[in-house]
Amino acid sequence: MKQRRLFEPEPEPTPWELVDRADQVCAQLVFNRPLETPFDYLIPEGLQPFVKPGMRMRVPFGRGDQAIVGYCVGVGRPATPNTRLKSVLELIDQVPILTPQMLELTRWIAERYLCGWGQVLEAVVPAGVKNQAGTRRQLLVSINPERWPGPEPVELPPKQLAAMTALQREGRPLGIEQLARLAQCGTGPINALRQRGLLLSTHERVETGSAEEEKPFERLPDLKLNVEQQQVLHPVLTALRAGEFKSFLLHGVTGSGKTEVYIRAIREVVEYGRQAIVLVPEISLTPQTIRRFRSRFDSVAVLHSHQSDAERHRHWQQIASGRVQVVVGARSAVFAPTPHLGLIVIDEEHEHSFKQDTVPRYHAREVALERARREKVPLILGSATPTLEAWQRAQQGEFELLSLQRRAAGLRLPPVHLVDTREDPQFRSGAAIGRALRNAMQQALAAGGQVILFLNLRGYCPVLWCQSCGAPVKCPHCDVSLTWHRELNEARCHSCEYTTEPPKHCPACGKPGVRYLGTGTQRLESEVRAKFPGIACVRMDSDSMRKPGSHDTALEGFRTGQTRILLGTQMISKGLDFPNVTLVGVIDADTVLHQPDLRSGERTFQLIAQVAGRTGRGELGGRVLVQTACPQEPPIQFAAKHDYLGFVQRELRLRRQMGYPPFESLIRIILRGPDETQVNEAAQMLGNTLRGAIEAGGVTARILGPAPAPVTRLKNLFRYHLQLAAPQLATLQTLWRQHGAPCKLPSEVELAVDVDPINLR
Length: 761
Ligand SMILES: [Zn+2]
Ligand SMILES: [Zn+2]
Known about the structure:
The protein starts with 25 loop residues before the first strand and ends in a 6-residue tail after the last strand. The protein is built from 22 helices and 30 strands. The chain is α/β, with parallel strands linked by helices and 761 residues long.
């Protein structure tokens, strides 16, 4: 968030450096700070042979010469000779932890997303790799070839001679303890040899503890592709064989067998001895997904955020050594250090979790595209509901569009019925399951089927509301309504996780009578248990799935049929493939629709289409009931007809009229600070500066705002934002670099720059 540091003056040199060092070699370093250009540091002569780009080193920084870690991005003469430079203090890595390709890619990210190169590097290298988790340093000794055998014979005491002979016999560097054992001597003679310069010492990282052996997976044969699948695979294979960059948008309805297409493409890549990266949303990294790849390839590495540092480090090393064929992971797996990349796949391309919410605010799709372009490999973006951004680029020919319009095994997409909640008195009395859905559930269960209920609100009651003054009860730190969690009897803020006892009196007017409104997943669970006594039901949301392994247990129970009803949030909306699910109920299709967000229509369509895709995957067929108070709203209508094309055509027309993405690019600037007036003034000042620059330069760009952000207060900080819009992203990047970034803001006001923002709260 501390973007303003970009413009801190360069650190003042100290007097002892006031000499001409133009003949010396420098390391160009970047830091985990929002700084635009690398800094030159002198490399002491003794370190010069070892310094390589991609290594980390410790250097003095800033006025106080505090020692901090920098990433070396280049080695050479100083950018400006005769400047006074500081020196590198020590090297942290013995070998580069970043390849030249990764350095180039991260520089591109910093430029595109307007952040510091060092900030990107800090983010792409996992913590476990940085601290080399799961390994320890071991001292190794080897014979110094210049001294032994030397030009003149060297007289050695017997034990030292035994050590030299043993080392010669082994022919490789050995640990001191190991050598002492082989030579049957103590460590004293060996240390004496080191002191005499007959032995060279090096350090090596060795793994501590043994890695857990992966359970062998039952190997499954490739499935037979249907005609449509073969047709879409063909152009991908052609690009693979030509060894060229090409991007494909694979639009395939739910259940059309996209994964099988990916697997065939990966098979080809593996046969060339190359590696493939498959990105999936974090919540789709289920054992089911992983099993699909492990049962088809010999060596699959999985990267996700729940791994320990040591595990991550081990996987990273294995990938870097080329021993892994397929890397499956969430967003950050796009940085997997595959030595010979052959293909990148992004499944569920429409998922918002591919955009990172903190610095660097990159989108994995854009990074994957850039990486694929640089490494000359194909990229497949797959989705049943592609983003409008991807669809528009396919229409313009940037991506080649491939479509799978039918479900794989000749199954049909399930019929979707809309239920108007305004016509059912059940809802007025607070029920979440209306008459129609209840009947449908009874029928499905009676016929031996299973049911999935989807609701994207956690907790028991999402709204606490005062009967007397009509004000919602909000978090004292955020501009967000508190949610009642009944199990723990607490009111919780879903933005900052502040919790309190549910208030008996209204914090605004002081009168008693706080009411609990709405239904969250916990309350839905109670209602299901009351309406369907004796039927096993499980709830999956971020509250019930806190314990490690609970996710697997819940899905396993549903897979075996022990659990008949599965209810939950986004967690259950995608990827699940259970042929016995004959009914999907969407409890409230309107929760996303009314959000003040340019993508609310798109999200509503995607949610319904994805959840609907969880049924009709077996011989029993399936159907979907969608409860809504707005059955006439186009996103809901189109989703009910499985009409993606109709939806995108209409939505693109609206976006074009409004000047929204994909027709215009956006950069969102968020200012936040403890004092609202100060934040507001800083936002106005920034807005005026940028407007002035646009007018003076005749630039084709607009500024929306400044205005209070939709969530005006978050974790005790006031938030204002402004948005820059233009047909070309480059226009905005230049505008920001030249006029926005140099603005001096009060030190309490923090700035965040979000290029191509998705989260607009
Ligand atoms: Zn009140
Ligand atoms: Zn809060």
